[in-house]
Amino acid sequence: MIAATALTTLPATFRLPLGEGAEAVVDWLTTALDGFFAVIRTIFQGMYEGVYWVLETPPFWAILIVVAAIAFFAKGWKLAVGSLIGFLIIVGVDQWENAMTTLALVLVASLLAILFSIPLGIWAAKSDAASNAIKPVLDFMQTMPAFVYLIPALILFRVGVVPGIVATIIFAMAPGVRMTELGIRGVDKEVVEAGRAFGATPGRILRQIQLPLAMPSIMAGVNQIIMLALSMVVIAGMVGAGGLGAQVVQSLNRIDVALGFEAGIAVVILAMFLDRVTAAFAGQKRRVPSFLRSKRTQQHDATGDGEAVATHSMPTRAAITTSA
User: Fold this and answer.
1) What's the CA angle centered on 55, arms 108 and 104, to 5 degrees?
2) What is the pTM of this model?
3) DSSP for 226-295, written as a single string
4) At residue 119, does pLDDT exceed 80?
5) For residue range 169-195, what is the model confidence (pLDDT) as tens digits?
């Protein structure tokens, strides 16, 4: 019995100091790199205030016109009308200023997440070693509860909108990296080989072949980044970011069903607009660059013959318009 008990119970002194290690790292960052984080805080705050000024300074009807124009350009008049109705509902429930605050936070956080995730995705697609190193980090970022990010973010960046932006970037950028890598790795190898045969440099192949053909997958990653950024709105509101998240938190504290529903429906409208617009752009057709086409194909295109003919060693499907 004693031996069995010893095997099934842990010693009282056994404890892995993971939490203490993380706290020590954050303390060191706070003291050693305080100036660096102050600069980051200033940059992020300035970006947010600039976007918020653009959204809040014009009258609401001017923003509505811009929203309708973007929706019409992306998918047509149906999306434009639906977007107008949705944003008019936000105006009608007196959540316009809060919605613009939230939209500014989401746009800044999404833009930064995209700027970080796409180069990482390209690197992962080009290097198996980088891919194997990045994937566990992405798994950690996606599965760690978002509230945990707020603790060091509050310590390093203080209360306000910046901790919300930082936590949103960390939480949202993983799908951008994964979808970028998936899209580039999924480009037809024969098309890439044809580019090399035509003397294209690796940089030109990336810019004019791989990225255009992988754009539907990349845009799907951008869509997921924006959706995850919107899902962080309420959490960002808990650390002083304001906007619709703060309204939801306030309604929870007051048990105010009306305020919670109005703020929630405004978040839903923003999410639907951004989702439909990015999905529409993701579905647009992409073409293989003209330098991959044969001279005969280019001559036919110039004379309006309308029929592409691939010659030499170029596979026929390499000059076909590729759609999502």
Assistant:
1) 20
2) 0.78
3) HHHHHHTHHHHHTTT--HHHHHHHHHHHHT-HHHHHHHHHHHHHHHHHHHHHHHHHHTS-B---GGGS-H
4) yes
5) 888 888 899 999 999 988 888 888 888
